[in-house]
């Protein structure tokens, strides 16, 4: 699907605030409510709009301690990778997991209450997963930029 300027503007607005009504969007885009509705439905059908979510202020729910954990597997066989990925998906503290190139195999973004909670997570959950060779943890000092907006 080719996106025109109106689609791009609509997507930017929705990424900034997906709770805007079709009426509010129609005023910003100079389109009818029906035209806006149809564009949104088309973007959803095409899979460009994947889902709608609520972003939580982590510190308000005692999940303000952010850790980036670099992880190496002991082997890179298809079975080891599949097993690790299926296990790490089950860990609620892990909010992102990326298979990467370089010195490490994966980078995990982990959110917990504090250092003590991270130690407990590391000892009782993460390091009990099979096939992990080593880990290296980096702790967030402050968040300089965190956005979900993709520039199109």
TrEMBL record:
InterPro entries associated with the record: ArsR-like_HTH, AsnC-type_HTH_dom, Dimeric_a/b-barrel, Tscrpt_reg_AsnC-like, Tscrpt_reg_AsnC/Lrp_C, Tscrpt_reg_HTH_AsnC-type_CS, WH-like_DNA-bd_sf, WH_DNA-bd_sf
Stored Gene3D superfamilies: 3.30.70.920, Winged helix-like DNA-binding domain superfamily/Winged helix DNA-binding domain (1.10.10.10)
Cellular component GO terms, alphabetical: cytosol
GO biological process, one term: response to amino acid
GO MF terms, alphabetically ordered: sequence-specific DNA binding
Domain HTH asnC-type: 3-66
Coiled-coil ranges per UniProt: none
Pfam families according to UniProt: AsnC_trans_reg, HTH_24
Classification via PROSITE patterns: HTH_ASNC_1 (PS00519), HTH_ASNC_2 (PS50956)
Top-level lineage group: Bacteria
Sorted UniProt keywords: DNA-binding, Transcription, Transcription regulation
Name of protein: AsnC family transcriptional regulator
Organism: Flavobacterium glaciei
């Amino acid at each position: 699907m080719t996106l025109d300027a109106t689609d791009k503007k609509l997507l930017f607005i929705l990424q900034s605030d997906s709770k805007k009504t079709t009426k509010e969007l129609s005023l910003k885009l100079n389109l009818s409510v029906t035209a806006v509705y149809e564009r949104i439905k088309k973007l959803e059908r095409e899979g460009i709009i994947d889902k709608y979510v609520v972003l939580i202020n982590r510190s308000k729910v005692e999940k303000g301690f952010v850790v980036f954990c670099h992880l190496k597997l002991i082997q890179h066989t298809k079975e080891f990778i599949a097993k690790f990925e299926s296990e790490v998906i089950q860990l609620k503290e892990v909010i992102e997991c990326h298979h990467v190139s370089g010195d490490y195999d994966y980078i995990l973004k982990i959110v917990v209450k504090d250092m003590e909670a991270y130690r407990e997570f590391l000892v009782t959950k993460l390091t009990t997963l099979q096939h992990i060779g080593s880990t290296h943890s980096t702790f967030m000092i402050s968040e300089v930029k965190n956005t979900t907006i993709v520039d199109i």
